[in-house]
Specification:
Blueprint: H1 2-22, H2 25-50, H3 58-74, H4 80-102, H5 109-125, E1 144-145, E2 148-149, H6 153-175, H7 178-185, H8 190-195, H9 200-226, H10 236-249, H11 255-274, H12 282-300, H13 304-321, E3 355-366, E4 369-380, E5 384-388, H14 395-402, E6 410-415, E7 418-419, H15 425-430, E8 433-435, H16 448-454, H17 464-468, H18 473-489, H19 505-518, E9 523-527, H20 535-550, E10 554-558, H21 562-566, E11 571-576, E12 579-584, H22 586-591, H23 593-599
Parallel strand pairs: 5-10, 5-11, 8-9, 9-10
Antiparallel strand pairs: 1-2, 3-4, 3-6, 6-7, 11-12
Helix pairs in contact: 2-6, 2-9, 2-10, 2-11, 3-4, 3-5, 3-9, 4-9, 10-11, 10-13, 11-13, 16-18, 16-19, 18-19
Bound molecules: adenosine-5'-triphosphate.
Adenosine-5'-triphosphate binds next to strand 4 and helix 14.
Length: about 600
Amino acid sequence: MARPIGAAVAAALALMAALPALVGSFTIALLNDIGIGALVALGLVLLTGIGGATSFGQAAFVGIAAYASAWLSTAQGLSPWLGLVFALLLTGLSALAIGMLTLRLGGHFLPLSTIAWGLSIALLFGNVEQLGRHTGLSNIPPLHLGGWSLARPQAMYYLIWTLLALALLFCHHLLHSRPGRAIRSLRGGATLLASVGADAYRVRLTLFVTAASFAGLAGWLYAHMNRFVSPSPFDIHASIEYLLMAVAGGLGQLSGALAGAALVLVLKNGLQDLLPMFTQRAGQLQAIAFAAGFIALLHFARGGLMGLATARWRRRARPAAGKHRRAGSPGGAAGAPLAPVTPLARRPLPARGSPLLSVQGAVKRFGGLVAVDDVSFAVDAGEIVGLIGPNGAGKTTMFNLLTCTLALSAGQLRFQGRDIAGMRQSEVARLGLARTFQHVKLRPQMSLLDNVALGAHARTRAGVLRAGLRLDRAEERQIMQEAQRQLDRIGLGERAQEWAGSLPLGTQRILEIARALAADPVLLVLDEPAAGLRRQEKLALAGLLRKLRGEGLTILLVEHDMDFVMHLVDRLVVMNFGAKLIEGTPAAVRADARVQAAYLGSME
Ligand SMILES: Nc1ncnc2c1ncn2[C@@H]1O[C@H](COP(=O)(O)OP(=O)(O)OP(=O)(O)O)[C@@H](O)[C@H]1O
């Protein structure tokens, strides 16, 4: 399989290299536009398709870079290559500032804000004297590479498509890396990321700046290819066209950026030739034709061109991917096992029996409802403690309080001697408190291996640049080895490459435990880990949890399956109506009349 793909890629590259000799200037100019459009759309595939943040303002970043380099090379007479550095810096800083102001906005407010800043920046270009107002800047110098002038479109073609190929490669590496897994998890919500010690806002901000940088690179190429800039190619219409490219090509795949740019620009050119034959209002009709095409696409092919093209292949590839692949390979992509690498460093565990977690007078109010009412208990290192109680007793709320997913209304929380009340969830996770969720939070379209690898986020360091440039491979191998080790531990090692979404719900809960273990925790907080498991699976889970306790890990769990809990835990804390009912050994709790009354005999 690898050989035919390699041969196809080599043939495509040879054809691309030969094209300037085979086709006319018009086609080359169109291909240059496609390459530049694809760079912008690539950023949008990352930001919108994979990261879930829609931007209607991407053309503004293209404009910032285009104007920056145009101004520097015309007004200041500096080299366009210095212009590239200046353009990327300015685009990156602008994206950082805009992102810091807007990325915390939730729901529809973020896309709305992108329209606002997209419009304002385009208006700014038309009103600044030094930028030539609406007339723009002309006589921008062409690029030179060594002694070679890139003034001709045929020469620019090679630069544009080389940069596009490198950008695609960069993004491919990025997505199969530590920061890439965090980016791919953004759609799972901030809580999922925080539970592995990552800050969703920072991940989104980094992604926003990365996407803007691709737009910046495109803007720089645009300025020195056309040798003229004016405000209109960077306005809201252009932004919508870039978004259309990304959607039409397929927001879920990097190749969608290229396919979408080609589709939109070829269609646009075709319509520009065709429509004037039938009407004098070709411009308006073109907009209507595009709108109709867009609606049809959303109805019939949400995955865009590449979604359609790869659907059959994906269906075939899925079951096969699950077989016989062992990790150790970066990204879990390759089949052959690699030699073991130095394991990730582990944190020291506290001495068995030492105080680990203490909850003092915890209160949580939701408006008038007191979900947790003055609850106090402690957990010592190396024990398994169960938190039980009837439905609605406040157990999950208590879990959310002690993992800092929710803020306390009153009370104190200490973890390893530190006051953690008021800390961010990601900070507490970094201290060694790992959790699973009552309503499973996994990335269904990521492999089991990648889902577990996400757990090691806070133990590792690689950022976007290192990952995109593939300088993170040693660390990545360590992460993959750790993820595979945890998968083997829960008995899912052979299924490492399957999609998490293909697992039954009960098994997904177990997968969450592996992800939590990959964080190398001190305290494991499990919300209903046995729900949905068959008897044999429950026995295996109990065995695993006992083994973990044997290794010195501390476990706090909420569970409704009394048989499972009673045979597993060292101590129980029972809650009812938000308050603590009693605390004690399983035998003492089982014998307590108040507990039996609370459960209305469900423990019999
Ligand atoms: N975000 C919220 N806003 C308002 N009320 C909430 C919220 N979260 C929980 N509650 C309420 O707090 C109470 C305790 O809920 P919680 O989910 O903590 O109970 P639980 O013991 O975990 O129940 P179960 O075993 O059914 O999961 C319930 O009455 C619930 O409706």
